[in-house]
Amino acid sequence: MARLFSPRPPPSEDLFYETYYSLSQQYPLLLLLLAVVLCGLLALLAVAWATARELTSDPGFLTTVLCALGGFSLLLGLASREQRLQRWTRSLSGLVWAALLALGQGFVFTGGIVSAWDQVSFFLFIIFTVYAMLPLGMWEAAAAGLTSSLSHLLVLGLYLGPQPDSQPALLPQLAANAVLFLCGNVVGAYHKALMERALRATFREALSSLHSRRRLDTEKKHQEHLLLSILPAYLAREMKAEIMARLQTGQESQPENTNNFHSLYVKRHQGVSVLYADIVGFTRLASECSPKELVLMLNELFGKFDQIAKEHECMRIKILGDCYYCVSGLPLSLPDHAVNCVRMGLDMCRAIRKLRAATGVDINMRVGVHSGSVLCGVIGLQKWQYDVWSHDVTLANHMEASGVPGRVHITGATLTLLAGAYAVEDAAMEHRDPYLRELGEPTYLVIDPRAEEEDEKGTAGGLLFSLEGHKMRPSLLMTRYLQSWGAAKPFAHLSHIDNPVSTSTPLPEKALASFSPQWSLDRSWTPRGLDDELDTGDAKFFQVIEQLNSQKQWKQSKDFNLLTLYFREKEMEKQYRFSALPAFKYYTACAFLVFVSNFIIQMLVTNRPPALAFTYSITFLLFLLLLFICFSEHLTWCIQKGPKMLHWLPALSGLVATQPGLRVALGTATILLIFTMAIASLFFLPASADCPFQTPSVSSVGFNLSWELPGSLPLISVPYSMHCCVLGFLSCSLFLHMSFELKLALLLLWLTASCSIFLYSHAWLSDCLIAHLYLSPLDSRPGVLKEPKLMGAISFFIFFFTLLVLARQNEYYCRLDFLWKKKLRQEQEETETMENLTRLLLENVLPAHVAPQFIGQNRRNEDLYHQSYECVCVLFASVPDFKEFYSESNINHEGLECLRLLNEIIADFDELLSKPKFSGVEKIKTIGSTYMAATGLNATSGQDAQQDAERSCSHLGTMVEFAVALGSKLDVISKHSFNNFRLRVGLNHGPVVAGVIGAQKPQYDIWGNTVNVASRMESTGVLGKIQVTEETAQALQSLGYTCYSRGVIKVKGKGQLCTYFLNTDLARTGPPSAL
């Protein structure tokens, strides 16, 4: 019973459930109940007319029925308008119950002699429908059911008690009535508890589904933002489809294609302009910055550049240290792409001039622009970065390198496209690098007309900072000034879509706050303005709740068949039919209670013949065997103590729960047993239809006290057999998950059998009972309400249609519950897939140990992510031969096939990262055909300082092994592509600063002298060799590696450095063999 009166859920959910969901499913039942009552009243009039009864001779019956017809018609009219007045539903339900109770009491005293069995079936109907069809709470229904029971018992007890003729049989009959009513209350309460549990489960699953959907929407938004922060939309869709396919197959690596090539996401675009920009003097300034200042400075600078790029319809491609490059004309072609890039370059120079003037920091901007065509897309498997390749891109890079600080350096191709929009001047030949000299084409410097005005204003403004500038470091002064630019933080655009639905509050707060009970279940009657106030999530919430309305079962649905309620998907129907049902044992236990009630009633109203007792004994054994099978798993501890040959018995309970065929057989057998034993007493009555009370010459004085036929059972057992049949009807409602068609078959079978017995084969018993009650010739013919066989048949039909409606309702909600559970599982799986995709995408932008800082419930976007490390090994590995290999012609689709080979090289390099021994290697980026990676970035801050030098730099050995593996991979690719590519590697270790910068396209990067020197080690290196600095050579020697001196070489920006080669040959021996 504790489960029947279990604690309610949280108030907000309970309020919404009671006022919207519960009423939406029980409201149709209330209307159907009133319709059944009205049909029953009309049936009484029809039966009275069909049996040739004079209605005028029984004014009490006619008045009661007509008043009831009027009253219940009025209640039906009120109930039909109750959809707009929900707050009165409980009151209306109470009024319906009171009307039924009054009608039942009126029937007791109408139409003839009052007997103890009068209207017991009708009161049983009232009790059951109070639980099953009225929208009342459990406690309210229990109070109404018990009140109905007591009212019948007390009224008849007080009325019949003083009458001496009734005293010998009154107490057993009242006791039988009490058992009937108690059983009706228990069955009704159990049915209500089962439905409440199923309905609440479906309701919560719907809310969970809504929560899951909103999480799914959130994850999709995350993915969209993350993808669009890396890739253009057209490329993001294509790559997302492949990632989804990869996740669904459970593979972390790309699936093998039939052509043995990795997917290439590169397209050619013509008519674009490429801008390269470099901050002159930033390297020296960065060396004076703290990690936080460096990351903040870079984020503010590049955030400002991103803002300028957006204003001029340019797309930032990549950030390389303090170098920034972008393209105009991607992904959509723009006619003024050259003008856009020049304007952006001028605005960048203008921003830096203002910064220099305001802070006095000696930095400048050098910009190069060239127009032509590019190959754009993504290569590799990890750390995707949208990039561009072509000879025109290379030329733009050289335009920046040979440019003039503070000026925009353009080619003749760009000048032609400007069409006189800006004045230019020839660039001095001495500024050109060897690449441009080799081309021999003239280049130009754009004249900014606003430069002189801003220099004057900037000089005046800079004086305001002159005093403060002497008091603090230039880097700090610059950082404070840059903060005024207000650049957005990386991934800040994701903050508004995090955690849209709290797990602790599953209902939309706005929807709950805005909802009140008096509003309509029909959204068309929602108060004006509510829909405008509800956000998209709340709108989806109402859409989900509307799908739970029981009225949907009578409408066309994409999920259910309108007539049979079968799922339209055959596979789903099969899954539903074969789903496990652990609660079946409780159905059987409650059915056993009905059986026991029938037994007690039979024992009370009969003289307990031995044959009847023997029949019940056998049936009791069958029921106990059935209960043992269902509950055997709960007796495992007891069975295990017995013989081993019985240890298999506990498995029977699991078989019943999981085998639908066995459940159907046992459930059908249980109901048929109850049906059979409900009329068992009739089998012990005489087969003849001779009734002594119908013979005028026979004295009936001897029979008045016992009410017995000679040598048989008391006649009072006849109406109670009918009441037991009604309990048999109710037993069908206990099997909540039994299919509707099976319930229909059993109910129809029992209706046919009951009516055949009491209206045909044993109809004489009812006539004999009436003859006994109305012995005097002066007694008038009893009314319909007092004739057991007619009232019993009407009760059978009323219960048949009532239980049929409930069976349909139960079937619909059982299937709906299964459907929502399946949808919830599917959405949870899809959400999990999306979360994995989001994680994969984010880890493709950020290292695994950095990603949690920017996503999830504990994300902190208030500060920029930055971290300093004392010992990080940085690798630059390039394929210099690829520059010579790359060409643009019709044969190779303007360089596309060359990039396909580069994609294979980078992808094979990326595949090495998935090996456990290289788990500490973090890919930073690719720069053309150069691969940049680092180790030591997953150490916690300050960890290196607390360890000895040998242990803190132990990851250098991992990086060396990785470099060797890169060389081996390149050898294999060269062999299969008939090339002679060789790797050139530079290594260095030391302190670095790591951070995430850029709001439009967040990018993880590392900075510091260690990175710069590692890059120089690669650019000044030798093919097939690993070049390292002296300090790195010493660290590697301490780890057991052999290094030999190369000597002193000149390194740009560092002067003369003594470098070493690692004693590892990365080149193949001998030329490639012919295949």
From TrEMBL:
Name of one Pfam family that matches: Guanylate_cyc
SUPFAM superfamilies xrefs: Nucleotide cyclase (SSF55073)
Membrane topology recorded in Swiss-Prot or TrEMBL: Multi-pass membrane protein
Residue positions binding Mg(2+) 1: 278, 322
InterPro entries for the chain: A/G_cyclase, A/G_cyclase_CS, AC_N, Adcy, Adcy_conserved_dom, Nucleotide_cyclase
UniProt main location, coarse: membrane
Subcellular location field: Cell membrane; Cytoplasm
UniProt cofactor(s): Mg(2+); Mn(2+)
EC number: 4.6.1.1
Domain called Guanylate cyclase: residue spans: 273-400, 873-1018
Cofactor detail note: Binds 2 magnesium ions per subunit. Is also active with manganese (in vitro).
Segments passing through the bilayer: 29-49, 61-80, 92-114, 120-136, 174-194, 584-605, 611-631, 664-685, 720-737, 744-765, 790-807
The reaction(s) this protein catalyses: ATP = 3',5'-cyclic AMP + diphosphate
Single GO term (MF): protein kinase C binding
Binding site for Mg(2+) 2: 278-279, 322
Record-linked PANTHER family: ADENYLATE CYCLASE TYPE 1, ADENYLATE CYCLASE TYPE 4
Function: Catalyzes the formation of the signaling molecule cAMP in response to G-protein signaling.
Protein name from the UniProt record: Adenylate cyclase type 4
Organism: Cavia porcellus
Lineage, top ranks: Eukaryota, Metazoa, Chordata, Craniata, Vertebrata
